[in-house]
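Write out the 3D structure for:
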Amino acid sequence: MTKTFPNFLHIMASIAFITIIGAAIYEHAAVVPAWSAAPPRSLSMFQGEYGLQAVNFWKPVHPVAILLLAAALITNWRQPRRKQLLIVVGGYVLVLAITAAYFVPELVAITTSAYSPAVNGDLAGRAQTWEKLSLVRLGGLLVLAVILLYGLSVKQAEN
């Protein structure tokens, strides 16, 4: 196999992974502050016929990133950059498991709460906790992205 194809897959995996981070940063800058401001009153953006359906982005983007990362790992298996790819794949799988176990169920529970003009203190506290923990998760993804991009600079072994 030429060196070009493993590099190409590593680059494509990096683009997919960083796209996820960009979307998460956007959500934390523009969407989360709106819905977490005064729940359940502020949750109307998710409800009704024209409610925001972020799942339409998040559901397909993760499998694409996983497939590209796996392909990059497989094609770079005998290369020194395998270490960086293993760290990123393992870290990303861990983040996705935590997301599936906590972040998605909690977000669904919060955002599907019945509308009320009064702010619910318990719900607002849960939203704040979710946001803080999600920022920690985003920080972890940023660290993984640096490791992934660093792997591109690791010299390939001569075959």
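The chain has one domain: 4-153.
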